[in-house]
Amino acid sequence: MLGQRIGYIRVSTYDQNPDRQLEGIELDRIYTDHASGKSTRRDQLEELLAFARAEDTVVVHSMDRLARNLDDLRRLVASLTDKGVRIEFVKEGLSFTGDDSPMARLMLSVMGAFAEFERALIRERQREGIAIAKQKGVYRGRQKCLSESEVIALRSRIAAGEKKAQIARDLGISRQTIYQYLDE
């Protein structure tokens, strides 16, 4: 019996289009996570790992969509191939079966290291861009989650002795966010 072709998609922001990652590839099932690669909670990936069986093929757009670092990539590829699952990386044009040669394992390590390096360069360029935008006075940063009137109400509730945890729940923010508003 031929196994299923299972797609895994991870988008780190909701404005990214998940459909583009595996567009045009015939799949029996698709698992999609909307989470940062750094996040350890990727429910759909966990479901995929539990679902995949011998002779299945897991198809991922690129190595950086599956894992954020080389150790995690190796661990995930090994956990799949140890069960007899084949894994394909579309962007890199690589596939791994568990019967891989030392050369295939080297390619996994090298390509994973390049993906990690590419992410580091992107983060560096992003930081540089933010610094330039701040110098020009055009960087706004993240939008505030509370209006000015809500901040005034927040401060008066705290002054009245109300617990910060309860205020945070009422406003739908974390306690840490409350402390940030108090420090302003």
How would you characterize the overall build of this protein?
The chain is of the alpha/beta class and 184 residues long. The protein is 48% helix and 13% strand. It has seven helices and five strands; from the N terminus they run E-E-H-E-H-H-E-E-H-H-H-H. A five-stranded mixed sheet has the order 2-1-3-4-5. The longest helix has 35 residues, at 102-136. It is elongated and about 65 Å long.
List the defining traits of the structure above.
Resolvase, 5 strands, DNA recombination, Resolv_N, Homeodomain-like_sf, 184 residues, 7 helices, alpha/beta, 48% helix
Write the topology of this structure.
Layout: E1 5-11, E2 29-34, H1 43-51, E3 57-60, H2 63-66, H3 70-81, E4 86-89, E5 94-96, H4 102-136, H5 148-159, H6 164-171, H7 175-183
Parallel strand pairs: 1-2, 1-3, 3-4
Antiparallel strand pairs: 4-5
> Quick check: average pLDDT?
86
Shape: elongated
Question: Which runs of at least 5 residues are low in confidence (pLDDT < 50)?
Answer: none
Percent of residues in helices comes to 40-55%
How much strand content do the residues show? Answer: 5-15%
**CATH-level-2 architecture of the largest domain:** 3-Layer(aba) Sandwich
Number of strands: 5
CATH fold category name of the largest domain: Rossmann fold
Major sheet: order of its strands? 2-1-3-4-5
N-to-C SSE string, H for helix and E for strand: EEHEHHEEHHHH
Report, as a whole number of angstroms, the end-to-end distance: 64 Å
Counting structural domains, the number is: 2
Going by CATH, what is the homologous superfamily of the largest domain?
Resolvase, N-terminal catalytic domain
Largest sheet: 5 strands, mixed
Total number of helical segments?
7
Structural class: alpha/beta
InterPro entries: Homeodomain-like_sf, Recombinase_CS, Resolv_N, Resolvase-like_N_sf, Resolvase_HTH_dom, SSR_resolvase
Family: Belongs to the site-specific recombinase resolvase family.
Domain Resolvase/invertase-type recombinase catalytic: 4-137
Pfam families: HTH_7, Resolvase
